[in-house]
């Protein structure tokens, strides 16, 4: 059976002619003038492979991901070696414009196979099934025919295996303390001499920057996603976009969040995966603060290629090695956490959240708040244990927030700091958990 292709770009003419001279295995079903037309042809099921012949600069990771999401592969033709390498990195199948007809047919067949293969299914943003990071798999062609073989193995500069762990802080609506825990957990990890990236991926109310006293308006994560979308994010680029925040425990690298909630579509799933992957290639820990909502909005819309409101949150939760679900320890926060754990299980079946209650206090739970909370959780909560209880300490947390300091710096002996440190300490480190790193002269954080 012939593979139907939709084509765009000024350089298809010659390839088309060469194809016409042999009994070929592809059939052109649509010649498009606009990218939107090409996408529509693919989305409608008319084409199994999109061909971009020349003018490939508009091919981004998001486009490849969107096509893969509907089972469509992509072949790009360009004479620029560097551009071919970029396209390979995005998951497109690239070749030069003078590719012989036979080679072109092989590329199309490989792209079509790849788009319906298991890697593509896992890579697509529409897959909620696995923890496999999309960027390691997004359309990364494995076939012998891929142009990687013909054009070299890329830059070879990046460490190949990710080494860091992704730890996500998530929880229901109602400000249970996701950001407070994420920022301070990251600071504790830095103090353990670990290289840490802190990423603000909350698309509803990003607030890592003010928690750290940063007057940063650069939206580092959105910038990193843009670079990743072009297939140009490596560790050095990521380091440049991150704000170095020097704490008493060591240096934290921070990717600040979007500056306004209505800019959520700057954090697309495919490029965010690439950012997370790049971060864990260089860091020991990647701590991510995410928004509360895990609603999968493609269920509400027939436009499966449209950007999804909660794609960033869902992608982080899918990729997280450890997911901390933070609930507020009161009569409103607990049932909210119970319900949201159910929603999480439906949206991200692979998720295995660690339950942590924050703002634990007598005024909300009675004389013995810890016991009251554990009893109530046993009766009403899902069958998973509470792994941490963080006390409510208004003055301490407010003072740290006011000074833009972490609790490790502002109140190292406070129970709230100790409880957060316990969440990320190994047993050996737990023995030394109250040790306070000495301040270093000249330490300043950017403002
Ligand atoms: N253990 C605590 N004790 C006292 N105050 C706390 C504690 N944890 C968080 N807070 C305060 O609660 C408020 C909300 O905290 P935070 O911003 O961390 O919540 P969030 O879940 O990230 O909220 P958002 O929905 O805005 O993302 C802040 O004013 C913070 O200082
Ligand atoms: Mg927050």
TrEMBL record:
Occurrences of domain CobQ/CobB/MinD/ParA nucleotide binding (ranges): 173-400
Highest taxon listed in the record's lineage: Bacteria
Pfam short name (any one): CbiA
Region annotated Disordered, chain positions: 139-164
Family matches, as InterPro entries: CobQ/CobB/MinD/ParA_Nub-bd_dom, P-loop_NTPase, ParA/MinD_ATPase
Swiss-Prot/TrEMBL keywords: ATP-binding, Nucleotide-binding
PANTHER family listed in its UniProt record: SEPTUM SITE-DETERMINING PROTEIN MIND HOMOLOG, CHLOROPLASTIC, SEPTUM SITE-DETERMINING PROTEIN MIND HOMOLOG, CHLOROPLASTIC-RELATED
Protein name, per record: Chromosome partitioning protein
Biological source species: Sinomonas terrae
